[in-house]
Write a structure and sequence with these properties.
Layout lengths: L5 H8 L6 E10 L1 H4 L4 H16 L2 E7 L2 E9 H13 L3 E11 L11 E4 L7 H6 L16 H11 L10 H17 L3 H23 L1
Parallel strand pairs: 2-5
Antiparallel strand pairs: 1-3, 1-4, 2-3
Amino acid sequence: MPLHEHSTAAALSKIEDDALIRLVYVSSLTLQSRFRPSIFQTVEQDARCYNQQNGITGTLCYGNGQFLQCVEGQKRVVLPLLQSIFDDNRHKETKVLLVHPIEEREFNNWAMRLVFLERWLWSPETKKQANTLSKFLPFKPSQWDSEEAEEFLHAIQQIETPPHVQESGISLNALGNMIQHVAGPHQAFILVQSVLAVLTIVAIYLLFSF
């Protein structure tokens, strides 16, 4: 476990190995992963396979280039999973938001449901029944504290059908995230260059119109 997660390690050290725990972490897609629309299907399949074999329940949420995953299970099986999560090079900036023992599972019927938090990709039917998630959009879980994470988890349990998108939408989303990742730090420069380009076109038009 990374050194910056000493508080997580300290919290886990106080919990019995057979105790049932809930752990929530957040992370960001790497630039390489943003070029791969299939990343979501691969991550979901990996999670489902491991979790079904080890009695882990929870949810995996994605939006705005960020993941939030909640896992529930015995500490002794969650710990190896946590280490593999930190070692996974498909994402970065991994941070644990909360970890604590629980009396019972809240995601008992969720083997590992993938929830997309990209409202512009949702179907009209999905939008109607997912209004409770509006306050969490745009999806930026890396800025949340443990209380906000708990509130979000409670909200997604209230929706009957998880927000979903088509494969074409996922492809566009991956492309959009890649552009945002590249262009984001240079927005001011891009804006100035765009204005200059428009002015240049107008000047050329005026020059040749007289």
